[in-house]
Amino acid sequence: MTATTAEQQHPISVYLKVWLLLFVLSGFSYMVDFYQVQGYLRWTLILIFMFLKAGLIIAIFMHLAWEKLALIYTILLPTIAILVLIALMAIEADYTFLTRLIYFRFV
User: Fold this and answer.
1) Is residue 66's pLDDT more than 90?
2) What pLDDT does 72 receive?
3) Which of 47, 65, 73, 74 could cross-link to 59 by cystine, CB 3.0-4.6 Å?
4) Each residue of 74-99: pLDDT tens digit?
């Protein structure tokens, strides 16, 4: 084994710890349904657990945590830009919907 291959290998304990953390986060996701949490709290918790699990999978199992910063920005910045645009469209859709409700109610 050369010095370059030894640097590229990661200890199995990292993967086992992340796997255990994913298991715990999935348990928390399940508990949101088990305890019948409702409303905005439910969706907030589901989204938080979903993003945490996705981030762990991308960082550790897809080896993004060990990549160069330029590659990380190349992957994450367009994704973040799309999420921002989706949020802006949702805000505009709510505004349009509420405006139509007000207009059709009073006309």
Assistant:
1) no
2) 85
3) 65
4) 988 999 999 999 999 999 999 999 99
Q: Where are the domains of the chain?
A: 1-66, 68-107
63: left (phi over 0), alpha (psi -120 to 50) or beta: left
Q: Side chain identity at 57, as an amino acid letter?
A: I
Of 86, 6, 23, the C-alpha closest to 57 is: 23
Which residue in this structure is represented by tokens 């349904």?
33
65 — pLDDT class (breaks 50, 70, 90): confident
pLDDT number for residue 7 = 62
Question: What's the rounded Cα separation, in Å, for the pair 4 and 7?
Answer: 5
Distance separating alpha carbons of residues 107 and 3, to the nearest angstrom: 77
Q: How far apart are the first and last CA of the chain?
A: 79
SS3 53: helix
Pinpoint the alpha helices (H) of the chain. 3-8, 12-34, 40-56, 69-106
Taking the C-alpha atoms of residue 69 and residue 78, their distance in angstroms, rounded to an integer, is 14
